[in-house]
Inverse folding.
């Protein structure tokens, strides 16, 4: 509650700046329409017009909020294809498209996390893997995802792998790297005195891993998971762009750009941001509970 005031103040400032930016961004169309109609457009009329255009360059915050409300709650409750009338999510609803993207995100995140943790354990315990795998892991992240995503989709489609898996693989590609880096740092966090103490107990390698290295790496793991889940969401959305997908937040962005529906584009962007913030918040709660039970947080 102590941080609520600053958060609300920053949010209000951003919304105010957004409203101010709407006027110059959309004024050209309003002035052109007034000129063709032979009318003199005053400032108040100009502001009102820029805030209510159907296809603005920059939609106003209330237009995006209304689109979010209509494409989620209203569509599902009152729409002909909504969950109330049909028992299943409407394919016009952002909830449906968000769930499609979330499915690929969670699958890719799970695979990426397991892969990242496994690679980190191997890198910490094997010098050959440290010298051979880590440079390739770093190099893999220098390739733009927009360049590699279509190739992955085409190759997987050629071998008969379609649907959720190709998108999940691209999410895995983006999400495994933060986990590798975080876990390598975390597994190497114990100092020499702690490792020497384990040697005096004749602890085996697996015992050192389970009883010392893994507990020490937990703060690093959760920090990297927060980055990884956001990266996995970006990967799932990007993967939907080159496939011509008809479902998912990426598909909504693509159809919005085809038809000049900027309000739809912005609402899909906000839906993605809400989704990412929710998943990061869930990981933060899990982190707080886990570290508290381990005695590493108050």
């Amino acid at each position: 509650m102590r941080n609520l005031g600053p958060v609300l103040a920053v949010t209000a400032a951003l919304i105010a700046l957004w409203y101010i930016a709407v006027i110059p961004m959309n004024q050209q169309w309003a002035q052109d329409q007034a000129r063709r109609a032979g009318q003199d457009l005053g400032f108040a009329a100009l502001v009102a017009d820029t805030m209510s255009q159907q296809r603005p360059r920059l939609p106003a915050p209330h237009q995006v909020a209304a689109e979010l409300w209509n494409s989620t709650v209203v569509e599902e409750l009152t729409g002909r294809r909504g969950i109330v009338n049909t028992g299943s999510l409407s394919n016009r609803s952002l909830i449906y498209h968000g769930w499609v993207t979330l499915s690929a995100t969670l699958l890719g995140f799970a695979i990426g996390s397991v892969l990242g943790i496994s690679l980190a354990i191997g890198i910490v315990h094997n010098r050959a893997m440290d010298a051979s795998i880590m440079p390739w892991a770093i190099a893999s992240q220098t390739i733009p995802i927009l360049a590699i995503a279509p190739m992955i989709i085409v190759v997987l489609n050629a071998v008969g792998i379609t649907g959720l898996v190709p998108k999940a693989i691209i999410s895995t590609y983006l999400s495994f790297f933060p986990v590798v880096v975080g876990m390598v740092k975390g597994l190497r966090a114990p100092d020499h005195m702690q490792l020497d103490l384990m040697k005096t107990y004749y602890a085996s390698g697996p015992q050192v891993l389970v009883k010392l290295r893994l507990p020490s790496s937990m703060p690093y793991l959760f920090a990297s998971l927060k980055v990884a889940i956001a990266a996995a969401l970006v990967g799932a959305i990007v993967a939907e762009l080159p496939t011509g997908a008809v479902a998912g937040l990426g598909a909504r962005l693509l159809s919005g750009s085809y038809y000049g529906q900027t309000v739809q584009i912005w609402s899909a962007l906000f839906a993605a941001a809400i989704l990412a913030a929710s998943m990061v918040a869930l990981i933060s709660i899990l982190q707080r509970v886990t570290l508290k039970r381990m005695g590493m947080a108050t």
Remarks:
- The mean pLDDT is 89.
